[in-house]
Amino acid sequence: MRLGIDVGGTFTDLLLHDADGGRTWRAKTPTTPQDQSIGILNGIRLISDIAGVEAGSIETILHGTTVATNAVLEGKGARVGLLVTKGFEYTLHLAKSWTPGPLFGWIIMDKPEPLAALEDTRGIVERLDAQGNVIEALDIEQATAAIEDLCASGIEALTISLMHAYANPAHERALLAIVEERFPDLPVSLSSSVLPEFREYDRTITTVMNDYVRPIMRRYLDRIETSLSAEDVHSRLHIVRSDGGLMSAAAAAERPVHTVLSGPAGGVTSTAQIGRQTGRSKLLAFDMGGTSTDVSVIIDGQPTISRSTEVGLFPAKVPTLDVRSVGAGGGSIADVSPLTKSLRVGPRSAGAMPGPVCYSRGGTEPTVSDANVVLGYLPPRLLGGGMALDVEGARGAIGRLGEDLGLAPEPTAKGILAIANEVMLGALRVVTVQRGLDPRDFGIVAFGGAGPLHANAMAEVLGCYPVVVPTHPGVMSALGFLQSEFKNEFVETFIRSVGAVPADAVASRFTDLVARADTWLVEQAVDLADRRIVRTIDMRYEQQGFEISVEMDADTAASGDLTQAIADFEAIHERLYGVRFDVPTELVALRVTALGAVPTLETKPAATDAATLDEALIETRPAWFDDGWIDTPNYDRDRLPAGARITGPAIIRQYDSTAVLLPRHWAEIDTHGNILIWPAAKESAQ
């Protein structure tokens, strides 16, 4: 028994898989923002009841969490102390001299306060050069006094980030020994361990962010494990990383910065799996939940990995799946701007509490979900009939907003959806058009509780078909967690001209990195047969600002021969940028990625006794299309037989989500149980 848990802003999604029986069960329960672990325990009880199993029989729990992200976005992290090389106390303030906006952006820039305050920063007398040679020895007496002063001031965590520590961590480790001797209970992070790479600001801010969220993550994981024990659940708890891999709860407590994009990662992993399942190599992942929408691109069946991301206004240099998020979801609040008197939607959200008006939890402001109710796109009951919607309450809230605009409820609701769709289209354009990709070359995979409601409208504008609604769209991120593998990256900065790098120097460094990777896989209890090591080097033309990763096979890495790597680098550079240069090439870093495979999980369509489309019909209800009410068939997703063809408009309902099929479109059910939506102009899916 393996359980995936995705905590969203509105709902906590769960998917339980029985490997022996090949069965899956899904559940959704309201998120508890005051303490997410409460919602998790509620969900475990619920899905255990649905599956008819004891919660104690769940062997592994795989959890995607937004705890680290929320702490940074809300400015509610720990008080972090910072030790830097003397003279570099303003590293976080100087940052990268970046200002927003192409013109006069600095005039209106609201520069955030650093995650470690200047009064909690101390300069340490020491200095290394870029090769790790000691220029000025570490002053132990001065360092001890600075540590005593800082650590006794009430800080909750400590970051140590010295100049060029990536090349020689000896001084950072010496400071760590002093702290551990005098303040053994204080969490400490070394930049040479968290991010052993050059670029001082990136290394420092990433390590500080790790400490900023570390005490909060520890308390959160402790609460979950304590609550699980109280329920007699002794499952192994694993946390999803931002790059879609897995790490143990203990590892997440030490390196929570690797979880800043944990939540969206599962959906991207599942989208890639759907691409392999359906033979479609180019897909857009469209994950619309209650609070936000996340989009990303799958090319050649693989998600794009970025070496850095942003959490609010702060960069974090950690491997992440390349996901763009916008503040538009089912709970996004619609109101009238007091300045322009125009309709606007989001980014404010009703969240889980009080939620949309239709949820009857005390919400009074109209939301995107309320608009979907008013237009007849959402049925009167959700979650298999377990959650009644307040249709009249939603209509009243939308109607009051419409009075301010001089509109009836239906056009007001239609306007809310149009604006929300435009916000989400902006994110899809960023990951396609702005990168030189034609969205018409892609299909779009719709998931999240609200994704299938809006995806057809997205595709109609962008021309990206088919729209793929997977079998479990509402809990697809949780499903993705079950399909994720263990993953961690080990890196050593090694900046040299390739012509001056001895082969044995490259080989020995790869040997050391592989040994560290093997140790980590053992710590994560990954079986030997499930382990895999990937070796890459980062290269660039000399004096370039950014580098390209080139994969090497095990034998070549062991030999240290860079001949093939140079040729591969130049070919990749030409493919990405359309040019190759006749200038020297530079080695920047060596990387080893440790991977641990997990049991495969293939989702299957629900067994159905329905042989025709009519047998899957639940009811016919009015829905608003083309500026008028149309009697629209509502179908039971779980009873739609493979090969069935549906002509729009139609509503397709299931436990965890609802899909809208627009007029002038049709849908078919493929052999994997996916819904494929096409425009009427395309008469055949082939």
UniProtKB/TrEMBL annotation:
GO MF annotations, alphabetized: 5-oxoprolinase (ATP-hydrolyzing) activity
Residue span, Hydantoinase A/oxoprolinase domain: 203-488
Ranges where the Hydantoinase/oxoprolinase N-terminal domain occurs: 2-181
Coiled coil regions, renumbered to chain: none
Domain of life: Bacteria
GO cellular component: cytosol
InterPro entries: ACX-like_C, ATPase_NBD, Hydant_A_N, Hydantoinase_A, Oxoprolinase-like
UniProt GO BP: glutathione metabolic process
Domain spans labelled Acetophenone carboxylase-like C-terminal: 505-672
Designated name of the protein: Hydantoinase/oxoprolinase family protein
Organism: Sphingomonas crocodyli
